[in-house]
């Protein structure tokens, strides 16, 4: 086995278009993957500048808001490591943009975030995939261990992260939910990794939920969604996804798209206006299919006035 390390950069590039959160993906050996590229310790001045260069070269996009997400370095996350290749360590970044057309034949395109994580979207009520596939599969998975304590531990974990048994749904536990499904053999990546390691088929061979991505990129995607949902509460990151002026309804729908739940219209508007997050422009947007609506803009002065100027997200916890 090689002692070499392959240091790379990977980007979760998020946009919200027509009320749908979308992520930029590329084709990597026939699989959908996050835009990625190697880091050159001698040629690249900084990690972030290198990331921007790689994304520009691969997808033709200039990134605006960028923050470092996490470093991913589990053994064998790249199957080439089992064949003697280097261990792959990736520094992942979260980038927020306004969706734009991808130029050129570079096999990059936008994919709906919830195609990969369909159990995370509660905007139209409890996702059907929970009762159709996830709940019964996890109940079977919890009964597998012969030791009663381990069976109880599995069931408790499922109840906490998925909101079973009367527990509330916590929108920020995105990564925990994906990792539980992976451990239970309910996503394609678990079967793929087991086969690469020469292990028996995963315990739940029937259900392989959501759109699979290359390597552990769906795990990275889940990490990014959990981070973004948390930051909505205390940082005005949502405005990075909006045009300079917008209606309050568009602001609300963008927040809902990321949070995965519907918000009370009047409560939301009182929250953003009382918090000094927005200010009216005096201009009206017509042609929306409803009553003309005033256009607002992000009020940047709030960054000096408040230590945590997020949208707050009242009432996000729902019961499964």
Defining key terms:
single chain; 320 residues; alpha+beta; Nucleoside Triphosphate Pyrophosphohydrolase; Arc Repressor Mutant, subunit A; 3 domains; 7-stranded mixed beta sheet; two-stranded antiparallel ribbon; 10 helices; 11 strands; 22% strand
Describe the fold and architecture.
- The protein is of the alpha+beta class.
- It folds into 3 domains: 5-115, Nucleoside Triphosphate Pyrophosphohydrolase (Alpha-Beta Complex), CATH 3.90.79.10; 118-209, no CATH class; 236-319, Winged helix-like DNA-binding domain superfamily/Winged helix DNA-binding domain (Arc Repressor Mutant, subunit A).
- 34% of the residues lie in helices and 22% in strands.
- Strands 1, 2, 3, 4, 5, 6 and 7 form a 7-stranded mixed sheet that branches.
- Strand 9 (278-285) and strand 10 (293-298) form a beta hairpin.
- It is globular.
- The model has no long low-confidence stretch (mean pLDDT 88).
Counted beta strands: 11
Give the biggest sheet. Answer: 7 strands, mixed
| Global outline | globular
Annotation field: number of helices: 10
Q: Report the mean per-residue pLDDT as an integer.
A: 88
Looking at the structure, the CATH topology of the largest domain is Nucleoside Triphosphate Pyrophosphohydrolase
CATH class descriptor name of the largest domain: Alpha Beta
Elements, N to C (H/E) = EEEEHEEEHHHEHHHHHEEHE
Task: Estimate what percentage of residues fall within beta strands.
Answer: 15-25%
First-last Cα distance: 46 Å
Question: What is the CATH-assigned architecture of the largest domain?
Answer: Alpha-Beta Complex
Helix content: 25-40%
**Which blocks of ≥5 consecutive residues have pLDDT under 50?**
none
CATH superfamily of the largest domain: Nucleoside Triphosphate Pyrophosphohydrolase
Number of structural domains: 3
Radius of gyration: 21 Å
């Amino acid at each position: 086995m090689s002692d070499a390390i392959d240091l790379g950069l990977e980007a979760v590039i998020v946009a919200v278009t027509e009320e749908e959160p979308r992520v930029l993906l590329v084709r990597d050996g026939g699989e959908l993957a996050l835009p990625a590229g190697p880091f050159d310790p001698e040629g690249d001045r900084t990690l972030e500048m290198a990331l921007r260069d790689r994304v520009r070269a691969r997808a033709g996009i200039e990134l605006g808001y960028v923050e470092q997400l996490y470093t991913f370095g589990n053994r064998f996350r790249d199957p080439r490591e089992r064949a003697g290749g280097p261990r792959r360590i990736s520094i992942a970044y979260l980038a927020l943009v306004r969706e734009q057309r991808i130029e050129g034949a570079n096999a990059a395109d936008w994919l709906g975030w919830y195609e990969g994580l369909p159990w995370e979207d509660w905007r139209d009520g409890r996702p059907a995939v929970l009762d159709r596939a996830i709940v019964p599969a996890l109940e079977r998975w919890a009964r597998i261990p012969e030791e009663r304590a381990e069976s109880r531990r599995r069931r408790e974990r499922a109840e906490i992260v998925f909101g079973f048994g009367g527990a509330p749904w916590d929108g920020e536990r995105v990564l925990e939910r994906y990792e539980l499904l992976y451990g239970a053999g309910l996503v394609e990546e678990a079967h793929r990794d087991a086969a690469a390691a020469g292990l028996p088929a995963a315990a739940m061979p029937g259900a392989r939920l959501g759109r699979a991505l290359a390597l552990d990129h769906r795990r990275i995607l889940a990490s990014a969604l959990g981070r973004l949902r948390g930051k909505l509460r205390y940082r005005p990151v949502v405005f990075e996804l909006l045009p300079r002026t917008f209606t309050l309804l568009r602001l609300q729908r963008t927040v809902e798209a990321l949070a995965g739940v519907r918000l009370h219209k009047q409560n939301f508007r009182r929250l953003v206006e009382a918090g000094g997050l927005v200010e009216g422009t005096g201009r009206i947007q017509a042609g929306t299919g409803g009553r003309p609506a005033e256009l607002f803009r992000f009020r940047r002065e709030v960054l000096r006035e408040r230590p945590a100027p997020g949208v707050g997200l009242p009432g996000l916890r729902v019961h499964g």
